[in-house]
Prior knowledge:
Layout: H1 8-13, E1 27-33, H2 41-51, E2 56-59, H3 61-66, H4 68-76, E3 80-83, H5 96-107, E4 114-115, H6 124-130, E5 135-136, E6 141-142, H7 152-162, E7 168-172, H8 178-194, E8 198-199
Parallel strand pairs: 1-2, 1-7, 1-8, 2-3, 4-5, 6-7
Helix pairs in contact: 2-8, 7-8
GO biological process, one term: carbohydrate metabolic process
Keywords: Hydrolase, Metal-binding
GO molecular function, one term: hydrolase activity, acting on carbon-nitrogen (but not peptide) bonds
Amino acid sequence: xxxxxxxxxxxxxxxxxxxxxxxxxxxxxxxxxxxxxxxxxxxxxxxxxxxxxxxxxxxxxxxxxxxxxxxxxxxxxxxxxxxxxxxxxxxxxxxxxxxxxxxxxxxxxxxxxxxxxxxxxxxxxxxxxxxxxxxxxxxxxxxxxxxxxxxxxxxxxxxxxxxxxxxxxxxxxxxxxxxxxxxxxxxxxxxxxxxxxxxxxx
Length: 202
């Protein structure tokens, strides 16, 4: 069960987390979770390059070690990268110590201080430990591309319907999301560029 836009109570419960950027300008932030992997990350990079826009990739450390050439391409092409733990851990199901060690293991592979918790699940105690060293990035729009029960058209409509100035939009570069990403991502970019939006990294 998920909602395309996170409920207000979550934002109030986790005020230290970044859910959306400034609403004063027509700037959007595309983000991609779980990669890099050869099956879909190069397609995403090619699409971003085609439209001359930048995104932010929240990388799983294990995938960075398996596919360093794709990770390097993300950096070489001017995209931002962030930490998504080394093994895609669920913070609710992981002790604080194990969670932080896993984050640090991933951090050793990455520049910067961006972090996004896998599944969006992180304990307040983990937030407290991380807040001094990382910007914890959540989202304003969850595309639903991971949902195998929806179509690419539905995924696209989710993004178009809920995106607004400053939105942080989530797509995934994982196997499950491939058909919906391939349909929705280029159409999302094309639609919002025509509406006068720009895309920027976090």
